[in-house]
Design brief:
single chain, about 325 residues, alpha/beta, seven-stranded mixed sheet, 11 helices, about 35% helix, globular
Length: about 325
């Protein structure tokens, strides 16, 4: 039993959707996407998802708790309901898996105290100052310490999910799923320091996406075409990456406002068009969804320049793209 939990007011899109998609693809157990309360989830930085249950509903159905609880980055990492539920799941013996700055949620709950952990490169200084009882670790895509697993920045969701498949179902199953999604390497080796903004290396790219694009350009509307059976991993990567450019906001565009069932069973809520003029429409490639980020970075380079694409890769903590 694998529960992926977020808050309705704002949950990191790729942190939430990628583990769901890969673990469902692997068929290693029952995977349920839940939220702290009923109603739609606003994903960050784009899209809306209807969770499959609430934490209260999950507790009613599974009083013994989950075997694995996956915790993405959320906007309200001090949410009392979420923190209390995480503590309860830990007490029931579940393994807690944080994606990116979902580690800050675990740290707020107290369950990380005395454990090794990692998270997004950009919060390294804050983490060490705010949570000194955690042994924060650099240069790892993911860190496993007993029943606590944590991952680095956004793109680490893919190798962490595959490592979880391997832990549950063995190497052969992980190799198969990795080939299906297009991510043959899920090792933990990583150089987190390469992403730190440094003059002469990557500072201009960082400044471009974080500041300059927003100051000097009006955001364009990017429509990502969705329909029944859309690959949720590819959709999350595309919508997230385009929106992180600082030049665009991605929207899920469907033929109607009817909720869309994704390939592996999530419910996506299309964005209302409201007569919005789309600057660009994206059609997702039908195979190898883990390669979507590479494809989108190529397109971002064409649309907005290589510095913007590099800035997005830095934000994703993605090691396979350089200026």
């Amino acid at each position: 039993m694998i529960a992926i939990v977020g808050v309705n007011s704002g949950t990191e899109l790729t942190d939430y959707v990628i583990p769901y998609g890969i673990l469902q693809q692997a068929a290693v157990g029952e995977v349920i996407a839940i939220a702290t309360r009923s109603g739609p989830m606003t994903m960050r930085p784009a899209l809306r998802v209807q969770p499959q249950d609430t934490i209260a509903g999950f507790d009613t159905r599974f009083p013994e708790g989950a075997d694995y609880v996956i915790v993405p980055a959320v906007v309200q990492r001090d949410d009392p309901a979420l923190l209390g539920w995480i503590r309860q799941q830990a007490a029931k013996g579940g393994t807690l898996v944080s994606i990116c700055d979902g580690a800050l949620v675990l740290a707020n709950s107290g369950v990380l105290d005395g454990h090794r952990a990692t998270a997004h490169w950009a919060t390294a200084g804050y983490r060490r100052k705010t949570y000194p009882r955690v042994a924060w670790t650099d240069d790892r895509r993911y860190v496993a310490d007993g029943k606590i697993v944590s991952s680095a920045g956004i793109s680490a969701a893919i190798p962490t999910s595959l490592a979880l498949v391997e832990a549950i179902a063995g190497n052969a199953r992980a190799v198969t799923v990795a080939a299906e999604v297009g991510a043959p390497d899920w090792g933990s080796v990583h150089d987190s320091h390469q992403f730190t903004p440094t003059l002469g290396r990557n500072l201009s790219a960082f400044a471009t996406t974080q500041y300059l694009n927003g100051w000097f350009h009006r955001p364009q509307s990017i429509g990502v075409t969705v329909g029944t059976g859309v690959d949720e991993v590819a959709l999350a990567l595309a919508a997230d990456a385009y929106t992180r450019t600082g030049r665009a906001q991605a929207y899920a565009v469907a033929a109607s406002a009817t909720p869309v069932a994704t390939l592996r069973g999530l419910t996506l809520l299309p964005d209302p068009t409201d007569g919005r003029s789309l600057s660009h429409t994206v059609t997702l490639a039908p195979d190898k969804p883990a390669l979507t980020l590479d494809r989108v970075l190529v397109e971002i380079t064409r649309l907005y320049g290589r510095q913007t694409a590099y800035g997005v890769a830095l934000d994703f903590e993605y090691p396979n793209f350089h200026d």
